[in-house]
Amino acid sequence: MEQPPAPKSKLKKLSEDSLTKQPEEVFDVLEKLGEGSYGSVFKAIHKESGQVVAIKQVPVESDLQEIIKEISIMQQCDSPYVVKYYGSYFKNTDLWIVMEYCGAGSVSDIIRLRNKTAIFMIPTNPPPTFRKPELWSDDFTDFVKKCLVKNPEQRATATQLLQHPFIKNAKPVSILRDLITEAMEIKAKRHEEQQRELEEEEENSDEDELDSHTMVKTSVESVGTMRAT
User: What are the domain boundaries of the chain?
Assistant: First the structure.
C-alpha cells in the first residue's frame, strides 16, 4: 500500500470549524485496522494537516456511559505515553472518535510476539477444562462450564447458578467439620509414625556404633594375648 505523504503540520486538536463538518469532509479513511471491544478502528488522514490518525467508529447502542468515560479520561490525559484524543463526531448511528495513530500495532500484537500470558489467553482462547474430567462429577463439571462462559449476556446469573444441581444437592456445611476432624486425626497419626520411625533409626544407629567398638576392642585384646605367649 502506498505510504501517506508527510504531514504538513502537527495536529493538536480538531478546530471548532472541523467539528461542525461531516467527518468525510475532514478525513480520508484509508483502511480498517481491526475491531475493538466497542467498535471498529480505521486508519485515516486529516486532510488539512496531512497527519495520519486513527478513527474508532462505535455504534451508539453500545455502552454509551463507558464510551463517554473513556473520552473524558482521554481529554484529561496529556502525556507522550497516552494516546492523544483529537475530537468526536456523530455520524448516523455511530460515534466517530478521532485519536492518535499508533503505527507499531496493538498491544495484543506485541504480546503474541512473546510467550502467551494469562491476560492474553483468557479472552482469546476457549475456556479451560479439567485435565482429568473423569475424576469429577457431571454436576460439578457442568457448573464450572456455566461459570466460565465468556459472554456475560450468555453466562448464567448468580441466582441461576445457586439453583444448579451442584449447589442444590450439596451436603450440609456440618460435614466439613467431620472431614476436618478426620484429616487432623490422620495428620496426627502420621506424625506419630514418623517420630516412631525416627526414634527406631536412632536406636539402630547407636547399636551399630556400639557393636563396632566391641569388635575393635576384642581384636586388640586377642593380638596382645598372642604376643604374650
Answer: 21-100
Burial 11-27 (b: 16+ CB within 10 A, else e): beebeeebeeeebeebb
56 is in an annotated binding site: yes
Q: Which three cell numbers stand for residue 162?
A: 445457586
Confidence band (pLDDT; 50, 70, 90) for 171?
Answer: confident
Taking residue 46's Cβ as centre, other Cβ atoms within 10 Å add up to: 21
CA dihedral 40, 45, 51, 54 (to 10 degrees): 0
Q: Going by C-beta distance under 8 Å and a sequence separation of 6 or more, which residues neighbour residue 90?
A: 60, 96
CATH fold group of domain 21-100: Phosphorylase Kinase; domain 1 (3.30.200)
Q: Is 48 helix (H, G, I), strand (E, B) or coil?
A: coil
What is the C-alpha to C-alpha distance for residues 49 and 188, in angstroms, rounded to an integer? Answer: 79
